[in-house]
Amino acid sequence: MLFTYNEDAMVVTGPVIESPSGLRIGQLAERVGTTVKAIRYYEALGLLDPPRRAPNGYRVYSPIAIGQLQFIRRAKVLGLSLAEIKRLFDTAKAGESISLRAQVADLLDEKLDECERQIAELVALRDSLQKRRRLTVIAQGAPPCACHGFDVSCACLPVSADEVSATSPAASPKTRA
Ligand SMILES: [Zn+2]
User: Fold this and answer.
1) 169 Cα: distance to centroid of ligand 1 (angstroms)
2) Class of 7-95 per CATH?
3) DSSP string spanning 5-54?
4) Would you say residue 175 has pLDDT above 60?
5) Residues with CB under 5 A from ligand 1 (ion)
6) pLDDT category, 171, cuts 50, 70, 90?
7) What average pLDDT does the segment 30-59 reach?
8) For residue 157, how far is its CA from the centre of ligand 1 (angstroms)?
9) Rounded mean pLDDT of the chain?
10) SS3 letters for 85-128?
11) Strand partners, 60
12) Where are the domains of the chain?
């Protein structure tokens, strides 16, 4: 597992300073429009500064957490994974805004490459399906066949015998792991 949850690690040690602007987790969730569960999860991933402990034991979040949670929500709109968001977050936290912009650009380039790859796959699939649709016996108005589709060369399924053997593991040992 990439991230482990350690509650003790999140407790800020040292003197607790009361702040009137501190937020309880529920208030923070409401302010940002997320859930308490999500905040705890982000905290476990290191995507939030750990809250301090009030004398009554409650976790108290700094107003900085609002901006940090909004950062996560905005990054999610970009379709980034939490691991990717964590990398951006760490850069942002380090105050490296120029590096942050470069990282965002690189991540979006990666997403675009992945999109192009998926589009190419879908175009190839569409072409194949269109070709097979044209080859269906319905389209060709062919007479009924006697084999009920069970002959290996029957045109009821627009698939050639060569294509079937090409997908057989025995016929293509190089694709085996
Ligand atoms: Zn047939």
Assistant:
1) 26
2) mainly alpha
3) --HHHHSPPS-----TT-B-HHHHHHHHT--HHHHHHHHHTT-SPPPEEP
4) no
5) 145, 147, 154
6) low
7) 93
8) 9
9) 85
10) HHHHHHHHHCCCHHHHHHHHHHHHHHHHHHHHHHHHHHHHHHHH
11) 52
12) 7-95, 136-172
